[in-house]
Amino acid sequence: MKLRNYQKPMYAGAKKALANGIERSSYYASTGAGKTVIFMKLIEEVFKQDDIAKRILVVHPRIALSMDQQERFVGHFNVPFTSFHSGSVVQSMENDEETDFPRNTSVTTKGKLEKTLDGVDEYDHIVFTSYKSLDKIADMDWDLVICDESHYMMEKATVKILDKLKSQTMFFTATPIITEMEYSMDNIEKFGVNDPDTNINPSDLINLGYNVLPRIYTTEISTDESGAVEDYSITIASVFKEQKLMLSEEIPHKMLVALPNTLRFNEINKEIAEIRKITGQELDIITISSGLNTWNGSSKGLKSRAKTLKKITKSKNDCIVIHCDTLSEGIDISGLTGAYIARGLGHAKFIQTIGRCVRPYHEDLVNDKPVPLSNRIKKFAPVHIAVVDGDHRNGNVDKWYNALLSAGYGSVVEDVWNIEELKEGVEPNEEEVPELGKASSVLSIHHNAIVNALADKYLKEAA
After folding, report:
1. Which residue of 21, 136, 329, 445 sits 20 to 30 Å from the alpha carbon of 301, by its own alpha carbon?
2. HEC per residue, 139-199
3. 388 in the Ramachandran plot: left (φ > 0), alpha (ψ -120 to 50) or beta?
4. In this structure, is residue 370 part of a structural domain?
């Protein structure tokens, strides 16, 4: 497992904390930076320390993400894995290898987990759990606890778990939550020290070519007398068509859609013909939820979410991937080219959702090195945000602007773009627009656009 150069400072810092027995430490890395690769390398380091069997606990926000990550781990580590989810047993992963121990098990109580660990005490062991279940086992003895998407520790139901953890713990997130509260993520006692020199910002990935720029637009939607959105299918199709025109014809357009809930999924599946009529093509419509996945209205063969996501990745067709919350964090779908955010999102999920589609197209990486921007198939990622009944003047511009800046997308060029003018809908003078590569960062209106965030130097040509 080889680290990219920009990942090495974070890994070195975490490895040093590991060796020095630092009780708690935090690491901030932009979506798509490869946090999973980094902490898999750290687990390798723990397993190499001596001949005593080690116990690693990896915590994720949801069972779906936990299972997705476990599949990656199974292909890399030849150790027992256990899923601990106190609500229900999860399906054990398929495993054809012959081993001396139960390869993949699932338990729901602390007692059964302790018995499972004792049963294979001569082997290293990795346990996966979610923040919802962490409270039950946080006080157990672990050689290392890794909290992925650790901003979930700030939720009301989980924040007090911080006081139960007694093992060496590392917190990884793309979106740290800093507040005036006692449990803010800059509280060294609770979350440990974060070394800013090891952090990986979006601008770092954009400058190096491992992310593309997000271009953020608004799309107007209206509600009926009851306050319900009149027709999601029409707006989804219209946004897809607009984004498709922006992108290269060489790349299939795979647009991620975030809806407020799953109640509209059946309605959308009934209107596939209408969506295709508006877009003018036979694209695929996929819905992903915790209980059911569908592909063009059918759930046949889609019981496994992991296999469904692989099918999306391998597909060469244009498609619309619709979810509510399942895909907003952590779970990667290679090949996403744009997003439509049709629900209210907090700061963290707004940035995380953008991060789902700013990864470079696979053909724009050669031997894991980005090709020059001029030769790229995917140069940016369009992201549309729904504006309900024209309500984009009530603080949303400030919200999006501040979210992008605080996430590390760079600072605004105030003498060219003025935030107050943006809120008034003033079009910038086209002659004043900096050329790509010369702006520190840009916040602009471009026909229907509200925000066009450019990072510090845009893309440096890959060596």
Report:
1. 329
2. CCCCCEEEEECHHHHHCCCCHHHHHCCCCCEEEEECCCCCCCCCCCCCCHHHHCEECHHHC
3. beta
4. yes
Closest Cα to residue 129, out of 108, 115, 153?
A: 108
Domain residues for the domain of 264 are: 204-452
Reduced to 3 states (helix: H, G, I; strand: E, B; else coil), residue 47 is helix
215 occurs within a structural domain: yes
Q: What is the pTM of this model?
A: 0.78
- What does the pLDDT look like over 293-312, one tens digit per residue? 999 999 888 877 778 888 88
Question: Could you say which DSSP state residue 297 is in?
Answer: T
Indicate which CATH number applies to the domain containing 282. Answer: 3.40.50.300
* 51: in domain: yes
Looking at the structure, tell me whether residues 45 and 164 fall in a common domain. Answer: yes
pLDDT average, residue stretch 42-68: 88
Joined together, the tokens standing for residue 121 give 């005490």
Q: Are 6 and 210 in contact (CB under 8 A)?
A: yes
Q: Which pLDDT tens digit goes with each residue over 161-201? A: 999 999 999 999 988 888 888 888 999 999 999 999 999 98
Residues 231 and 111 in one domain: no
358 and 220 housed in the same domain = yes
Claim to verify: residue 116 and residue 147 sit in the same structural domain: yes
136 and 257 part of one domain: no
Strand partners, 144: 56
DSSP secondary structure letters along 123-139 = S-EEEEEEHHHHTTTTT
* pLDDT at residue 98, as a whole number: 62
369 φ/ψ angles, rounded to the nearest 5 degrees: -115, 130
Let me know if 180 is exposed, middle or buried by CB neighbors in 10 A (0-12, 13-18, 19+): exposed
The rounded distance, in Å, linking the Cα atoms of 140 and 130 is 15
- The arithmetic mean of pLDDT across residues 108-123, rounded, is 90
Give yes or no for residue 439 having a pLDDT over 70: no
For the chain, what is the domain count?
Answer: 2
Q: At 186, which amino acid appears?
A: D
Domain membership flag for residue 463: no
Tokens 């996966």 belong to which residue? 128
Say if CB 218 and CB 392 are below 8 A apart: yes
Report the Cα–Cα distance between both ends of the chain, in Å, rounded: 22
Determine phi and psi for 73, rounding to 5 degrees: -65, -40
Same domain, 44 and 105: yes
